[in-house]
Amino acid sequence: MKLLDGKKTSTEIKEEIKLKVTAIKTAGERVPHLAAVLVGDDGASLTYVGSKVRSCKYVGFESTLIRLEEDITEEALLLKIDELNQNENIDGYIVQLPLPKHINEERVLLAIDPKKDVDGFHPANFGRMALDLDAFIPATPFGIIQLLERYEVPTSGKHCLVVGRSHIVGRPISILMSQKGPAGDATVTLAHSRTQNLKSLTKQADIVVMALGIPEFLTADMVKEGVTVIDVGITRVADESHPKGYVIKGDVAFDEVAAKANYITPVPGGVGPMTIAMLLQNTLLAKQWNQS
Amino acid sequence: MKLLDGKKTSTEIKEEIKLKVTAIKTAGERVPHLAAVLVGDDGASLTYVGSKVRSCKYVGFESTLIRLEEDITEEALLLKIDELNQNENIDGYIVQLPLPKHINEERVLLAIDPKKDVDGFHPANFGRMALDLDAFIPATPFGIIQLLERYEVPTSGKHCLVVGRSHIVGRPISILMSQKGPAGDATVTLAHSRTQNLKSLTKQADIVVMALGIPEFLTADMVKEGVTVIDVGITRVADESHPKGYVIKGDVAFDEVAAKANYITPVPGGVGPMTIAMLLQNTLLAKQWNQS
Fold it and tell me: Collapsing DSSP states into helix, strand and coil, what is residue B8?
């Protein structure tokens, strides 16, 4: 069994980006600049955004955190979005979700200039990705592709089962893995809440991508020997014995499945750490693409 | 066995559109207007475009055929596209493919205003479709969905195998059938040239969509009893005994597969006739969406 170590791989990617930033500086150019918009002061969102800003600092990017009041009107937020679209010093930006209930999330995401949409949530990016054109790929599927590619996990002609059809993980990874290219050319099945006989599907699959959000759902009896397992689940499960009062669980019963797997991602330390690295990668791409 | 009769269904859809056009006229409004751009004088393209223009007349749409010389420059064509984007009297338009080799097809398709892209080939439309937003759906997959829906073929929780990953058929139908909604909620597997053991997949499937372009590829031994088969293939096969010198063959060995199937589309008269009806439907939608 080989561990697909997202912590190590994401660090490598960040080091690669750092080197590129140094080269950019040496060439006398402006470094990539990521902005993040945070509305309100939800604890989890603050943590995520904070971690993104710190990662920018680490690789040498410029970063700007724009904090807006919880009760900001949709119009005022859209004006801010327009400012960011116009600001030539900002290469890419994200709007941290969820937004307060009085704001139409879809309208806000559609207002982001696709050229600066480093989260890859805008339909123009999603469509470009699905049609094999250059695009910002959402961070989680982009991170999965990187892990598979860097560990040279065979995918061509393999049967890959993706469990979960969300717009930010299941759907895009099902598209990417069935396209030509790195970590691609797989025969992909997309399963979801309406799927019947899921176990007969997981047992056939050479690669299983779990993006369901149900802790330890995938057990050893559901997979075949030599399977590759990518675990996208991150659920907080109450655990009094832990100082934080909870532990993070993936969608996979790790120990028992690992015993049968050729490759497997741990949780934490698998797909999770890859997402911020890929957000940085998209920001670097934004600077390159918008300049040319 | 029930035949999914595309000829009959497309006629029904055209009649429905005709009624809506009559209502539009009665309300004193302008009728929908479709334009088609044809570069050069390729025989097959002329036939397709001619048939689209005739269908417009039939349902009462206004239509404009713009014929351009084979040796038109890309710049001149892009200017024409821009004119069409600006022209408020045109609700939607198509650029008949293929374009001459000296013209970059991708650049031309990306220049079409997504709001008028009734072929649904622009990434902005493709992304909207994949993210469950209102979108122009490419005519062939849209036609398949309509057939499944109008014949009330069960799809929810069924295993659907799509063979072929083209951008205009295989990829979009694989997305649509796995989404929530009419003719949706299926567990979809997308197979393609790199797929191994295709026969073991076709034999498991409740629904098989063939979009491969290999005449009579799918045979009775490859499917299970009670299967639903959608045949998107249209290949001209030389046949001296026929007045035209060829016959049109689908990807399915119809007679033997039909004997095992619950539902099946014939070729010709299945998916083919649906495409023009759905182009008209998209043009009607374009007028509605662009007005509101």
Answer: helix
Report domain A28-113's class. alpha beta
Question: Does residue A292 carry a pLDDT above 90?
Answer: no
Distance from CA of B241 to the nearest CA of A (A): 40
Amino acid at A219: T
Residues of B in contact with A179 (CB under 8 A): 165
What are the sequence ranges of the domains in chain B?
28-113, 139-272
Q: Considering only CB atoms, which chain A residues are within 8 Å of B171?
A: 130, 175
**Which among A133, A185, A191 has the least Cβ separation from residue B194?**
A185
Distance from the A175 Cα atom to the nearest Cα atom in chain B, whole angstroms: 8
Task: State the Cα–Cα distance between residues B181 and B179, nearest whole angstrom.
Answer: 6
Radius of gyration of chain A measured on its C-alpha atoms: 19
* Class of the domain covering B139-272: alpha beta
Query: Does the pLDDT at position B291 exceed 90?
Result: no
Instruction: Please name the member of B125, B130, B191 whose beta carbon is closest to the beta carbon of A171.
Output: B130
Please state the ipTM of this predicted complex: 0.96
Question: What pTM does this model have?
Answer: 0.97
Cα–Cα dist B52/B37, whole Å: 11
**Does position A3 have pLDDT exceeding 80, yes or no?**
yes
Please confirm, yes or no, whether A52 is among the known catalytic residues.
Answer: yes
Where does the pLDDT of residue B105 fall: very low under 50, low under 70, confident under 90, or very high at 90 and above?
very high
- Same CATH fold assignment for domains A28-113 and A139-272: yes
